[in-house]
Amino acid sequence: MSSDPGISRPTAVFGSFPRVRMRRLRRDDWTRRLVAENRLTADDLIWPCFVVDGEQERQEVASMPGVERLSIDLLVEAAGEAKELGIPAVALFPSVDPALKHPDGREATNPENLVCRAVRAIKEAHPDLGIVCDVALDPFNSDGHDGICRNNYVVNDETVAVLVKQAIVQAQAGCDVIAPSDMMDGRIGAIRDGLDAAGFEDVRICSYAAKYASAFYGPFRDAVGSGGALKGDKKTYQMDPANSAEALREVALDLQEGADMIMVKPGMPYLDIIRRVKETFAVPTLAYQVSGEYAMLKAAVHNGWLNNDAAVLESLLAFRRAGADAILTYTAKEAARLMRDG
Q1: Whole-Å CA distances, 253 to 68, 131, 207, 208
Q2: Active-site residues: which are they?
Q3: pTM of the model
Q4: Beta-carbon contacts of residue 277 (< 8 Å; ≥ 6 apart)
Q5: Where are the beta strands (DSSP E) in the chain?
Q6: Which residue of 116, 182, 231, 279 is 20 to 30 Å from 127, comparing CA positions?
């Protein structure tokens, strides 16, 4: 038996076979629904979407079958579809023109950048749909990193100063949730102070507090155009996949600095981290079913190895069972339709 203190065990024995037959409560659909310990609904989903400049522009992401980059006009329409399906919020990620990328990521702080224009357009059309904005420099940085590079190293404090400005222009555009995914030390407190000083004390912060240096991000980098530009790796600022207790320290620090919600990324390979965070802190805990997870699932479906509908819903239910309050997933609209249509 494992000695892991994180594993809960029954405190009593409740009889034995044949008096106890566990299958009784599995016999009928109504009893299975009656005693289900976890529920998945559209309320639990956030739809991550990719925005690109242009009009009536629709670009397939080859490594993410079914996922597209959309121009703002088409994204507004797609966001409306998500809202109609009961999805509470969308998360925006830009595919920026390479000509606008610089080593200092300056376009991230431009009030007229692609993200800010998309936020304003969506808010005008759908004022009651939540908008989550990524705060990191990798879509805007010619080095493909989440921060500013000096001598092949991502510097912390100089990056944080830019992230604060990025968060403020997003809040000015109408963003509801600032979601720093950069993993710089101290950025949550700095962003909170910056937002408050600018009059945005009600804008929420969802911290990617436990973001791992994972092999599962490749398709996302294709989607935002940062993969080819990336020099080196992100292991000096994203977490080591070997570590679990370190995630709790990261979460504790970000909560102390003012984070309202916590994100764990990636998702399914890190269900143990989700569980530990939720049990330790009892705060709103989100999970990101990342691009590599999505690509693997869809590849298996394409090859006839998995049933798409069942696998999509089961994978999302796993996050709820682990303790996630909400899930960022590229299958959000698909899953919401499946649940609506029964």
Answers
A1: 36, 25, 11, 12
A2: 211, 265
A3: 0.94
A4: 209, 210, 247, 248, 251, 262, 264, 283, 285, 323
A5: 45-52, 58-60, 68-71, 89-95, 130-135, 149-150, 153-154, 177-180, 204-211, 261-265, 285-289, 326-329
A6: 182
Q: Cα torsion at 76, 78, 83, 84 (round to 10°)?
A: 120
What's the mean per-residue pLDDT of the chain? 95
Q: Which residue is associated with the tokens 């999302």?
A: 316
CB 177 within 8 Å of CB 130: yes
Strand partners, 70: 51, 58
Between CA 322 and CA 270 the distance in angstroms is: 10
Measured CA distances, 109 to 81, 157, 161, 200 (Å): 29, 16, 11, 16
Instruction: Indicate the DSSP class of residue 74.
Output: H
DSSP structural state of residue 287: E
Which two structure tokens, joined as six digits, stand for 33?
């629904």
**For 178-192, what is each residue's pLDDT tens digit?**
999 999 999 999 999
CA-to-CA dists, residue 194 to 139, 178, 201, 269, angstroms: 22, 12, 9, 34
Q: Is the dihedral of CA 294, 300, 303, 309 positive or negative?
A: negative
Residue type, 180: P
pLDDT tens, position by position, 253-309: 999 999 999 999 999 999 999 999 999 999 999 999 999 999 999 999 999 999 999
Q: What is the C-alpha to C-alpha distance for residues 310 and 295, in angstroms, rounded to an integer?
A: 16
Q: Which of 129, 100, 126, 127 is nearest to 113 (CA)?
A: 100
Instruction: With CA atoms as reference, report the closest residue to 265 among 250, 248, 286, 281.
Output: 286
Asked if 214 and 243 touch (Cβ cutoff 8 Å), the reply is no
